[in-house]
UniProtKB/TrEMBL annotation:
This is Protein kinase domain-containing protein. It comes from the Eukaryota. The keyword Lipid metabolism does not apply. It holds the Pfam family TPR_BSK1_C.
Length: 360
């Protein structure tokens, strides 16, 4: 199966997704999670909108990265605490009910077109402010009756007590009848050209990093990331003296061990150490995500590498390296047109950055 773009990438490009397509996404993801559960994989880790990808026909797919158990006993959330299931904050464990909670946050994203913390979304739902919750781009272009059903599902999924949340089969049963326009191809509803019809992307001059990525030269990319160290993380985290707890010191020690392993090309150890740093969630580092992405590529896990490169972009949306790493991962997934597009976008960001530096 060839994956194309994440739903968040399409939103970032200001392509409004019509209501019928949002319903299709919600239904397909619920069906995918229900299928995984029936096949003995009920735990999908860190479910969020960035795990929703589209294939060359524009059909929604769920990244398999969430099925990879990258921590012990189901402990693998690395999201913003505001979006983390309450029970995970209590005991650090992911359960099938936690997946339902996370699915609720995806429903809120689809309804609103942006990230709204679950507590705020619930306040709006309790206040019957459904219209305020809805994406303003959908004004007059959606069924209030259908929206009310989806909002109700989101509210049920986001309940504090796990036992009060619906089952995935209940979600599928409720969403499936809402799946309208079955004969309209997804790529038409998304307003994108089919993969094979897309025109060639004009290429920009490439930097050493761009050249290395275009060649899929992982060794050269590794040398550049080692040389750049953490210079692009400046300003990402500003911590007060009071925040330097023992947990913080342990987390930074884990990152240091990861850096040593990364430098020495011990990529499996680097993944473990960087995962310890990321899982705490107190600090965010685009460089750590980029480095772990490269580690996954060396370990022949391009899907996980793509997920980390996307996370690096979330932390720093204008960072060329995040786009370069996505380009390499996409190429490893045989998505060569999308890899070329991402490479070109990374080069464009570098040009923009250089112009700003020269103008300052």
């Amino acid at each position: 199966m060839t994956l194309l773009l994440s739903i968040c990438f399409i939103v970032r490009e200001n392509q409004t997704i019509e209501w019928a397509m949002r319903l299709r996404v919600a239904t397909c993801i619920a069906e995918a999670l229900d299928y995984c559960s029936s096949e003995g994989h009920p735990l999908y880790h860190d479910l969020n909108a960035y795990r929703v990808l589209f294939d060359e026909d524009g059909d929604p797919r769920l990244s398999c990265f969430g099925l990879m158990k990258n921590s012990r006993d189901g402990k693998s959330y690395s999201t913003n605490l505001a979006y983390t299931p309450p029970e995970y904050l209590r005991n650090g464990r992911v359960t099938p009910e936690s997946v339902i909670y996370s699915f609720g946050t995806v429903l809120v994203d689809l309804l609103s077109g942006k990230h709204i913390p679950p507590s705020h979304a619930l306040d709006m739902i309790r206040g019957k402010n459904i219209v305020l919750l809805m994406d303003s781009h959908l004004e007059g272009k959606f069924s209030m009756e259908e929206a009310t059903v989806v909002v109700g599902l989101a509210s049920q999924c986001l309940q504090y007590e796990p036992r009060e949340r619906p089952s995935m089969k209940d979600l599928v049963a409720t969403l499936a009848p809402l799946h309208t326009k079955p004969d309209v191809p997804s790529y038409v509803m998304l307003g994108i050209s089919k993969y094979e019809e897309a025109p060639p992307t004009p290429q920009r001059p490439l930097s050493p990093m761009g050249e290395a990525c275009s060649r899929l030269d992982l060794t050269a990319i590794h040398q550049i990331l080692v040389m750049n160290h953490y210079k692009d993380d400046e300003g990402t985290n500003e911590l007060s003296f009071q925040e330097w707890t023992q947990q913080m010191r342990d987390m930074l020690e884990a990152r240091k061990r990861g850096d040593y392993a990364f430098r020495d090309k011990d990529f499996k150890t680097a993944i473990d150490c960087y995962s310890q740093f990321i899982d705490v969630g107190t600090m965010v580092s685009p460089t750590v995500f980029a480095r772990r992405s490269l580690c996954y590529l060396f370990c022949d896990q391009p899907d996980a590498a793509l997920a980390d490169a996307m996370q690096a972009q979330i932390v720093n949306p204008e960072w060329p390296t995040a786009f370069y790493m996505q380009s390499v991962a996409l190429a490893k997934l045989d998505m060569h047109k999308d890899a070329a597009d991402m490479l070109n976008e990374a080069a464009g960001l570098e040009e923009k950055k250089q112009r700003v530096v020269k103008g300052s």
